[in-house]
Amino acid sequence: MLLAAMLGLAACSSPGSSPSAHTPAVSPSPSVPTGSASSVAPATPSGPAPSPTTDPAGQGSPAPVVRPGDLEGTFDVGDHELHVECRGLGTPTVLFHNGAGSNHHEWDPIYEAVAATTRACRYDLPNTGQSGPLERVRTVADDVADLHELERQGILAPPYVMVSFSAGALPAWRYAMAHPDDVVGMVLTDPLLPGYDGAWAARLPDAERPAYEAQRAGDNPLRYDFTASQALLGDPPTLGATPTVIIANDRHIRWEQCPDCEDLTPVAQGLINALVERAADARAIRVTSPHWVTGTHPDLVRDEVLAMVERAR
User: Fold this and answer.
1) What is the CATH number of domain 72-196+234-312?
2) Is the pTM of this model over 0.85?
């Protein structure tokens, strides 16, 4: 039962995700229109793309010339393409990271309000939304390399406020670890935290555990290695000095898929508490909500994002 729920979720999709060949099935819920790319032509890098697994932690971000104005399109980042949308003017740039298996429309409840205040960008990961397919297994290091390539093309530029949902915390967090001077704040909504998957696996019957571990290591429709990605966040993971707000539901991220897993609630809440305690500048907000906190508490998420933007100015 637990494994079936996990395989159906694949990563923690939001109720706003649009069904597609690459999106794991979730409980029926209102879908968000998929939208379409604008007439902006895809950008092809003029030089060699970075290695897909490059994660140059500590090397500092490039200083690109940012493309002016609003943009939306599908951009070549090496061996795959990413759909990116940017709106608004000003700094810092708010960069939205989706939950795995969903798409950039999960930020519709707050995106326009943020873009009215500063530059706001959102994108689809490979094998999701309007981005292209990618067969090889990826980790968070690949996500960071993709962001570097978008910076090289002038599509993105720091400083950033990173805003994430669920497993989207992994690339936001890893980028902040690699470039602490380029990330002025993070707002992590109901994040997947290292340690939760292990607690989930411990509840599985022995016969089901190998399939679960393979699924988390990349044998999933997203071709994403969640296990290796979480390991790249450190042991124990730390937020460092980056100002961070965690907005989490008051149970655990998969309670909708497993209502009988209440023993995971103290585990999940303990992981949040420990992370905040290890951080130099972090706090947690708990809400009663399904996993997609932005959909149920859009005003709270919007206000925390805008407060982080103002703090950085």
Assistant:
1) 3.40.50.1820
2) no
